[in-house]
Amino acid sequence: MKKRIVICVAAAFVLVALAQAAGVTLDVKEHVLKNGMKILMIPKPGVPRVVCHIYFKVGSINERPGITGSAHVHEHLMFKGTEVMGVTDYAKDSEIDRQIDALMDQIYREKYWKTDGDAAKIAAWQKEVDELVKAEKAFIIKDDLWTQYMKNGGTGLNASTSQETTGYYVTLPSNKIELQMLLESDRLMNARFREFYSEKDVIMEERRLSENQPGYFFGEQVDAAFYTASPYHWDVIGWMDDLKRMTKEDLVDFHNRYYVPNNAVAIYVGEFDPAAVIAMADKYFGRIPKGPDLEPIRTGEPPQYSEKRLYGEGPAATSLRMMFHTPPDGHPDTPALAILASTLGSGGGGFRGGGGGGGTGRLYKTLVRDKQLAVSASASGRPQWYVGAFQFNATPRVDKGVKPEDLEKEIWAEIDKVKKDGLTEEEIQKAKNRNEATFIRSLGSASGLAGRVGRADLQRGWRAILSDLEDLKKITNDDIKRVAAKYFVKDNSLTAIYTRKSGR
Amino acid sequence: MKKIVTAILALAFVCVGLGLGQARHPSELKYPSLKYDPPDPKAFRAEYAGGLRAYVQEDRSLPLFNITAIVSCGGLYAPKVKSGLDTVLGDQLIKGGTKTRDGAAIEERIDFLGGSLNFNVGERTSTLSLSVLSKDLDEGLAIFFDVLMNPEFREDPLKLAKARFVEQLRQANDQPNGVLSREYEKLLYGDNALTWRPTKATYEGITAADLKAFHAKYFSPKNVILAVSGDFAKADLKTKVNKLVAGWKGKAVAFPALPKAFPAPEPGVYFIQKAINQGYISLGHLGLDDTNPDYFAVQVMNFILGGGSFTSRITTKVRSDEGLSYNQGSRFTYRWGLPGTFAGYVQTKSSTVGYAISLILNEFNRIRKEPVSDAEMETAVNYYLESFADGFQSSLATMSSFANLEMTGKPMDYYKTYRSKIQAVNKARVQEVAARYIHPDTAVIMIVGDFEPCNKGGDKWSGALDKLGKVHRINLTDPMTGEEIKNP
Q: Which domain covers residue A183, as residue numbers?
C-alpha cells in the first residue's frame, strides 16, 4: 500500500504566458505543483462548463515485446476502482483479489510456460477462480467512477491511449471541478486493478473489432515493416499473444513507473476561477509523492539503405501506400514537410502534419481529376515525438484497369517535379494561410484546445504550438526542394500494394 | 466542551463546503450552487429579404465568421430510379461551379483563404456551411450565396463524380458494421425511400438536369434557415445578406409523401455470412417519432437500459461482468416525421454471440417487468439535468439547434422546458414506456458473422442459434447491380 503524503505547496509558482500569434492571444496559465505535476488553465467564459483533461507522458512506445498493449490495458484498468472507489469493503475485496491473482498465476504458468500443460489442472483452477469472481461481486460497486461523473453531469467522459500519450477526459459543470480533482488524484494514488482478467477479454474483443476492419491485418504488417527498431513497430492495441499472457503484476509495475505526478499535465478549459483551481490542485494532486525521473525512449529508426516493398491481398479496396521516414517533431525540416503534405494532399488534414486528399491538392488535381487514374489520392505527414513518417495513399480506378503500380509511377513523377521546381509561391502561401486559420479555429473548441495544449506540453512545452506556427511562416521554396530531395528517396521508403481478393 | 466540539464539526463541514477540506469520497463533496438558463431563440431570430429566416449571434471571441444554411430537402425526396442523387448533389453543389464561378476555382479560393465550405445532404435536411476569417467575410459570403442560389452542375465534374461514386460502390459490403446497419433498416422499413440504395445504373442515370430540377424545387429563400455566428455586427450582416439574396425567389414547395406503411418482419434470427471472428449484432424493431410526448421518458429509460454507457445495465452485464465485448448497449434513433428504430447492439467473438444476445434479451424483459432502482433513476435524471448546458458551448451549434427546431416544427421553448420534462419522469413512467416501446417477442435479431462458429456457441450458451427463433439466412446484394449474390 502506497503512503499517502500530503504535500502543502507554500509558494505557488504561477506563470501567465501570453503569446501573440495570428493576431490572436493564446493565454495559458501555468502552475507547477511541488511534486512536479503541471496544471494548465485556459479560462473561456460563456457557458458554465469546464473541460478537464489529464495527460500522462506514456503510451505504447514505452512498452517492450511481451507487454505490448499494456499502456492501453492500463488505461482501461484505471476505471476499475481504487481503495476508495468501486468497493464496499476494501479489506475483504483485496483478500479475494489476491487469491484470484495467485490462482491465475498458476494457470498462466501451466498454460503459457509449458508446452504440455495439464488441461485438467487448468480447468480445476479456473473453476475456483470463477467462484472467487462470483464472491467478489458482493464487494464491487460496478463502474463507480463513471456513475459519479455521469450523475454530476459529466460528458465527453473517456480516455485514450496513443503511441506517446494517455489521456483521461471529462467535461463537468463549473461548480464541480473538485469532483474531477478528487477522482483523478485518487486513481493516480490508489488504483487497484479489479476485474483484470475479464477486462483483458474486453480488450481482446476491441482488438478483434480492429481485425474485422477490412485491410487491418495488412496495415499492421506495413507499420511493423516500416518501423523496424523503434517501439512504433507495434500498434497501440498490442499483439494478441501479449494481451493473453500479460499479468496483473506487469500492469502494477507499469503504473508505478509512469503514473507519477511529475509525468502528468492536467488542463482545464472553460468557465472557472484559476486561483480556485490552483488551490484545489494543490490540495488533491499535491498530496501525491513525486516519482523518479523518466528516461526518454532510446531506440530510433536506423537508416534503411534499401527500398522496402510489401504486397498483400484481402477483402478491402485495392490500394497503394508509400511511406518515407522523416525526422521527429520539432526538427527544422518539419514545417517544410507540413507544407508539402498540405499542398500535395490538401483538404482535411490538420495543423502540423497537414495533408489530406481534398480537391485542391496536387495529387487530386493530377491523378483524380485530370488523368482520372485514381478514385482518391492523398498525402499526409506525421512528425511524432521520436520518429516521423510521410505517407501517400491512393486508390486506383479499377474500372479503367489502373493498377497501384501505375499510381506509384505517377506519384514519383509528382515528387520529382517538386524536387526540381519546388512548389509555386501561391501554393506555399496557401499552406501558410491554412495553417494559421486552422490554428485560430482550434482556439474555438474547448476540448480540442485542451487536447492540443495538454499533449504538446508533455514533450516540447505548449509554447511549441506558437513557435511552430512562426517557423512555418519562414519556409521558402528552397526549403521545400531541399527536404523533398532529402527524404523522398527510394532507400528511405516502403511501398505497400494491396489487392482486393476474398480472404482476410 | 461539548459546544466547542460541535462548533469545530460545523466549521469542518463549512470548510468542505467551501472546498477547503480534502474529501476522500465524492459523497463528502458539497458544491456551490449553479444556475444556468439556456439562451432564448427569440433574441437571435432575424428575417432577411424574400422571407429568408436566420438565427444570428455576434461572438467576438475569435476573428471568425461562420454561416450554415439549413435547407429543407434531402435524399428521401429522390425517386428510386435516381437513388444516389443525394450523394451526387452533396458533391456537385460546390464542385459543379456556379453560373459565374468554376467549381475548382471556388475550392481553390476558399482554401487559399484558409476557409472551409462544405455541403451535406441528409434525409430531409441539407446543410451548406462556410467558415472564414472575419477579414474575408465579404468574399466568403458572396461565394456562399452564389453556391447556394446559382449552382451550375457542369458536365465534366459531374461525369468524374459519378465514375468515382460507382467505383466506391465496390466497398459497400466491406465493413461489417455498414452491412449490419443497412440490412437492419432494410428489414424494418421494407422497400421505400428510406432504404433505396444507389447502384451503378442509378448513378449513371443522374443528369445535370436532375440536379438542377432538384435544386430549383427546394432551394428557395422560404425553404432555408440560416445559422450564423462570429465576429460581425448584426445590422451590417443584414444589409450584406439582403443585397446578395435580392431577386432570389422560389415557389412554395410541395414535398413528396413520406413512407407510411412498414412491414412487420417475422421475428427470429437473420444471419448474414462474413468470414470474420466476431458477430456484429442488432436486435429490436421500429421505435418512435421524436415528437412523441413519451420521448423524454424513453430517453431516461434507455439511459438505464443501455444508453448510459458504463452506468447502463447492458454494458454492466455484457461488458463489465462477462467481458464479452468492447462495444454494446441499446439505442433509439430518431427521424423527423417518421418512426425511428430501436436496437440492442453488441459485437462479440463468434462463440459468445448466442450468449450475449440472450443477456441483452434478459435486460429487455427485466426493464419491462421490474421497476428500476432509485439509484438508477437518480443517475439518469441527474445526467440530463446537470449536463444540459453542454449543448450551448458553441454559438454556431446553438444557432443551428434553434434553426433546426424551427425547421422541423418543434416548439421553440423546447430547450426552456427540457429539464422540467426530464424531471417529470419517474419510475412508473420508465416502466410504462419500456413496456410500450420494447417488444422482445417481435424483435428481429440480425447477425453479421461466420455462421458455423456462431451457431455452435460456447461453454455458457451452447447454441444453436435457432434457440433464439427461426433462422433466416440473408444473401447480400451486389452493390453494383443491386441484385442478390446467390453464392457468396
A: 13-81+143-287
